[in-house]
Every structure is written in structure tokens, then in C-alpha cells.
């Protein structure tokens, strides 16, 4: 049974093909995401992954792994603290912060850390509903 403090983590990375596919699906062809020459002129110095693509990791985990099947992803507040780069490994960490049993929902922290140095890259909170788990 899930309770406040229950947690889950997942290691992940994105390749350039993932980013290019997301450009096609979303229609966001900002050269910052795929043009190395353009990105070199920005503070990031190289292409960065779309924030919405990073948030898709949260959606995947909450729908499939934690809390799991049957969950409805209701809300996400996200702060992008540092850029996510293609080819680097990251760790997504999720922890249940609170549960509302009447609404069958929970607030879950959603964080991404750089795997190598442990720096927080993304920080947020999601609200998820699941009739069977909360």
C-alpha cells in the first residue's frame, strides 16, 4: 500500500532522435533543441532537451510505475533549474508528499537529478488521482 513517504526512482537519458521526434510531435522546432551551431551561441552552448519532453518522464512513471496503472495525471508544477542535455544520464525521483483519501489523490514530488554529480535539474509537484490506490 502506498503512503506518505513512498518513493520511486528511474534512471533515464534522451538521444537526439528522441528530441527530433518530439520536435515533430509537438511542432516545436526551436533550433535550441537540435542545431548545434545555433545552440553554441546561447548560454547553454549545446542543444537542450525540451522541458515538455522531460515532463513526459513524469507522465510515464505516474501512469505506468508509481503510483501506477489507472492513475490520472491531474496537475504538474515544474521549475527547470538547469538544462537537460542529450546523451547525459539523469535520475527521476518521486515521493508521495500527501494523500487526500476523499478525493483519491496524492501530491507527489517530481525531481530530476544529474546522475554524475547529483545536482538537481528539475523540481516540481504533481497531483495524481487513483481510485484504487488512494
The CATH topology corresponds to: Thiol Ester Dehydrase, Chain A
Shape: elongated
Please identify which CATH superfamily we are dealing with. Hotdog Thioesterase
Highest CATH level, the class: Alpha Beta
* Average pLDDT reading: 96
CATH architectural label: Roll
Structural class: alpha+beta
Give the domain tally.
Answer: 1
Concise synopsis of the structure shown:
One of its GO terms (biological process) is fatty acid biosynthetic process. The chain has 134 residues and is α+β, with helices and mostly antiparallel strands. The protein has a single domain, classed as Thiol Ester Dehydrase, Chain A (Roll).
Q: Secondary-structure map with pairings?
A:
Blueprint (H helix, E strand, L loop, with lengths): L6 E6 L3 H11 L9 H4 L11 H14 L7 E9 L9 E11 L4 E10 L5 E10 L5
Antiparallel strand pairs: 1-3, 2-5, 3-4, 4-5
Protein name: MaoC family dehydratase
Pfam family, one: MaoC_dehydratas
InterPro entries: HotDog_dom_sf, MaoC-like_dom, UPF0336/Enoyl-CoA_hydratase
Keywords for this entry:
alpha+beta, 134 residues, Thiol Ester Dehydrase, Chain A
Describe the structure.
There is one protein chain. This protein has a five-stranded antiparallel beta sheet, covered by helices on one side. It has a single domain, classed as Hotdog Thioesterase (Thiol Ester Dehydrase, Chain A, Roll), CATH 3.10.129. The mean pLDDT is 96. Helices cover 22% and strands 34% of the residues.
Amino acid at each position: 500500500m502506498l503512503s506518505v513517504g513512498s518513493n520511486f526512482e528511474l534512471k533515464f537519458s534522451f538521444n537526439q532522435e528522441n528530441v527530433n521526434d518530439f520536435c515533430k510531435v509537438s511542432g516545436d522546432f526551436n533550433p535550441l533543441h537540435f542545431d548545434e551551431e545555433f545552440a553554441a551561441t546561447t548560454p547553454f552552448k549545446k542543444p537542450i532537451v525540451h522541458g515538455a519532453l522531460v515532463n513526459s518522464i513524469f507522465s510515464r512513471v505516474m501512469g505506468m510505475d508509481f503510483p501506477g496503472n489507472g492513475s490520472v495525471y491531474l496537475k504538474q508544477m515544474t521549475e527547470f533549474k538547469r538544462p537537460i542535455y542529450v546523451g547525459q544520464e539523469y535520475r527521476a525521483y518521486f515521493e508521495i508528499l500527501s494523500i487526500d483519501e476523499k478525493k483519491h489523490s496524492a501530491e507527489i514530488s517530481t525531481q530530476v537529478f544529474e546522475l554524475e554529480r547529483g545536482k538537481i535539474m528539475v523540481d516540481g509537484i504533481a497531483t495524481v488521482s487513483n481510485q484504487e490506490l488512494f
